[in-house]
Batch of 2 targets.
Target 1
Amino acid sequence: MAKCFYIETVGCQMNVLDSELVAASLRRAGYEAVDSPRKADAILFNTCSVRQHAEDKIYSALGRLKNVKEHYPHKVIGVLGCMAQKDREQIFKRAPHVDLVVGPGQLAQLPSLLERIADGRGPQIEVSLDRKAGNRREIEESFERYDPARDAPARPFRHQAMVRIMLGCDKFCTYCIVPSVRGPEQSRPVEEIESEVRHLADQGCLEVTLIGQTVNSYQSTADGRTFRLSDLLYRLDGIEGIRRFKFVTNYPRHMTTDLLEAVRDLKRVSPYLHVPAQSGSNAVLKRMKRGYTVEQYREMLAATRETVPGAAVTSDFIVGFCGETEDDFQQTVDLVRQSRFRNSFIFKYSPRAGTKSAELYEDDVPDEVKRRRNNELLAIQNAISDEENRPLLGRTVEILVEGPSKASRKQPAGDMLQLTGRTVCDRIVVFQGHHRLIGTILPVRITQTNAFTLFGEPVIR
Ligand code: 5AD
Ligand code: SF4
C-alpha cells in the first residue's frame, strides 16, 4: 500500500512552489497525497519565518500533534522550509516528537530522509550553512537548487505555474530574515528557465509567474552575454502557448527603463508590478537599509506610470518599525494616498532574531500603536482600491478562469457554478459560468466592483 503524506504550507509564493515541487517528488517516490493529517503517514509543515506570528502558529500546530504521536508513533512529523533553517535543532528541543527538519536548500533530499526514518535511523536534520559559516561559494552550494521537473497533473492548477528564476537575497534589509534562511542571491541560467517554461507550455500552461525575492535583479550570462530580467522576458516571449507572463517581487531600485519598456512592448507580459515601498519616511527607510529615499521611490513610480500607462502597481508596507514616529507614519500615509496603489499588503513590524534591526534597534512602538497604524493605512488603501476598481464597471476585461470560487465549493456539484478568474492586472473576477470555462481566457463584462473583487458576466461572442 502506498504511504500517504499531508503537507501544510504557510508563507510566500516561494513556499507554495516548494510545496508543489515536494508533493510532486513524493508522488514520484510512491507516496500518495491526502487532505488531512489524520489519514497521513507523514505530516509535513512547510514553514515561514518572516513574522513571529507565522512561527507561533506552526509551534502550536506541532504541540497539538504531541498526543497523535503518542498514539501513532510511526507517523512522521516533519518541519520544512524557512523555520527549519532558522531554528534547526531547537525544533527538536521545543517539540521532541518531530522526526524531520529540512531547510529550503535540502528539499531534494526529502524522499531519502523519509526512507531513513522508515529504516529506523531516528530523527533526521538537513539544513544549509549559516551565511557566515564559509566563503560565498560554499554557502551558495549549501543552498541547493530545487527545481525538479513537474507533471501537469501534479500542479494545483494546470493552466498556471510559477517558475523560480532566482533564489535567495543579498539585500539584507535590516528587518528581514530572508537572506539568512534562503541564502545568497543566485540566478538560474536562462536555458534552464527557458526549457522549464517550454515544458509547461507543452503541458497546456497559459500563465507563468516568474518568482524571486528581488526578481528584477535577475542576472545571468549565456553565450557570452548578460541577461537581465528584460532580456529573459524577450527570450521567453518567443515560446508558443504561454499567453501571460507575470513576475514578482520587484526591488524598487532595479525598476530600470529596459524592464519597463519590456513590460510596455511585450504584449504577453502583464502590466502588473509588485514593488514594495515599505515606508514613506526617509529616516525609517534608512534604518531599514532599503537603499532608496522616498523621493527616489516616487520617481520610480512616475517613470513606471509614464512608460506603462495603466500599470497596476502594488506595494508592501511595514508599520511600527523601530523608532517610527507619528510624523514618520504620516509620511507613509501621504505616500499611500498619493501613489494610488492598486493594493497594498500592510504588516506590523515583527522583530526577528538574527536580523540587524533586532540587534541594533529597540522594538519601541507599542503593539496597540502598530495595530492602529495598520488599520488606518489599510482603510486608506482599501478606499483607494475601491476607487481604482470602479472605472472598470461596464467594461469588458479578459480573464484567465482559475476554478470554482470558495463559496461554490460548498454547493452541490452542477454544470453551472460560481467561478473566479484573474485579469492581467491580477484582479480577481467572480462570475457565474459553466465548469468547462475553467482554463480558458474569457472576456467578461464587469457588473459590480468593490475594493477586493470584481463581479461580471461572460461575454458571448
Ligand atoms: N516584520 C514585519 N513584516 C516583515 N516583512 C518582512 N520582514 C518583516 C518583519 N520582520 C514584510 C515586508 C515584505 C513582506 C513579504 O513581508 O513588507 O515585503
Ligand atoms: Fe527581505 Fe529586503 Fe530581500 Fe525583500 S529585498 S527578501 S525585504 S532582505
Target 2
Amino acid sequence: MSILEVRVPNIGGFKDVGVVEVLVKPGDSVGADASLVTLESDKATMDVPSPFAGTVREVRVKVGDRVGEGSLVLLLEVAAESSAPPETAAPAPAATPPPPATLPTPVPVGPPMPSPAPPSRAESETSPPPSPSGLAHASPTVRKAARELGVDLSRVTGSGPRGRVLQEDVQKYVKQALAGQVSGGAGLDLLPWPKVDFARFGPVETRPLSRIRKIAGANLARNWVMIPHVTQFDEADVTDLEDFRVKLNAELGEAGPKVTMLAFLVKACVAALQRFPEFNSSLDGDSLVLKRYFHVGFAADTPNGLVVPVVRDADRKGVLEIARALGELSAKAREGKLGAADIQGGTFSISSLGGIGGTAFTPIVNAPEVAILGVSRLSVRPVWDGERFAPRKVLPLSLSYDHRVIDGAAGARFTSYLAEVLRDMRRAML
Ligand code: CAO
C-alpha cells in the first residue's frame, strides 16, 4: 500500500477555479478515472478524475475553495503495484508532480443565478436556472449518472450552489419517480405548444426574454401546475392606518424613509403568521416544516422582470426599519444588484399592486412557501357602520395558499385576522 497525492491536472489554462462539488469522502473506494471533485470556472465545469483505483484517505479541498493546476485534492491509498508515477498523482510526501496533460471534458455551465431573484427564491435556493442551451447545471459525473438512469436533468431540482444538480438530487428524483411522486410536465401528457408563424398574419417584432423573465417563468409555471391554489379575497378598513401613515410621513419629512402601506402590511402579516404558523411553513415530503423565523419577501417590478427580495427577521423590526429595508431592497432590485442573501430564505411573500391599480388578483404561491398575499389599490367606499354609511378607506386583500397545507377555513381566518390588525395595528402588539 502507498499513499498518493492527487492533484488538479492541467485544466486548459483555467486558474483560480472554484470547487463546486466534492464527490468522495475519506474511506470511499474509488475506481480509476472515478470523479473526485467538480470544478467550475465561469466558462466550464470539469471533474478531476482519480488516477488509480484506491481508497480515499484524506480530502484536502472543500466546496468553495479556489484551486488551479497542481493544487492538492486528496490523498489516495493505492495498492503498491499500481502506484507507478501517475499523471495526476504523486507519492506523498513528494513535491508537487508536474501537472499532467489530462484535460477533463469541459461542460458549458448554465447562466449564473441572477442577483435579482425569480419569484420562487427557493428559488434561487432550489431551482436550477434554465440554461439557454437547455443544459441543466450539473457536473459531467452527474450528467453521466442521469443519462444511465434515463433521467431528464432539466426536470431535476438542484440543491447545490446556484441550483446545481447534485448526484443526490438525481437519486432523490429517481426515488420519487419510483414512488410515483414525480409529476411535472411529463405526467400531464399535454399537447405540444402551438407553433404559429405569426408573421403570416401581420408585422411582428421578436424580443428575447430576459434571463430573469425566463427563470421566473419556469418557476411560476412549476408552482402553478404543482400547487393546488385557492385564493381567499377579503378587505381591510385601513382608514385610521392610512391617516396615521400620511401623518407619519409628514413628520419624518426628508429625513425618514418613505413609509408606504407595504411596510405596515409586512408587520401585519408577521402578526398573522405568528398566530397561524402553518402559513409560515413548507412541505417536505410527508412533513411540514414550520419556520420559527419570519423573512417576508415582496414582489418587485423591475425593468428586467419580477424579483422577490426578502426582508429578514421582519418580526424583530419596527415599521420604520422595514420601510428602510423595502426602500433599499427595491432600489437594489431595480439596479439588478440584489445578492444571494437578499433573495433567499423567505417564508411568506407579499405582492403589492396597490400603487398601480386593480381590485383583486390571484397571486401564485412562491414555492416552497405555502402562501402569498396579494394587495390591490385601496379605495374610499361607503361602509355601513350600523347606523349610517361612512366613507372608509378599504384595502383589497387576495391571499393565495397551497391547499395541501392550508384548509379554506384557515385561509379565511388568516385574512379576517389580518384585516383586524390592519384596522387597528395595536393588535399586532398583543
Ligand atoms: N393602494 C393605494 N395606493 C398605494 C397602495 C395601495 N395598496 N400601495 C402603495 N400605494 C401608493 C404609495 O403610497 C405610493 O404613493 P405616493 O407616490 O403618492 O407616495 C405609490 O402607490 C407608489 O408606491 P411604491 O410602488 O413606490 O411603493 P410600495 O411600497 O407600495 O411598493 C414595490 C414597492 C417595490 C413593491 C413596488 O414598487 C412594485 O414593484 N410593485 C409591483 C409588484 C408586482 O409586480 N407584483 C406582481 C407580482 S405577481 O405577478
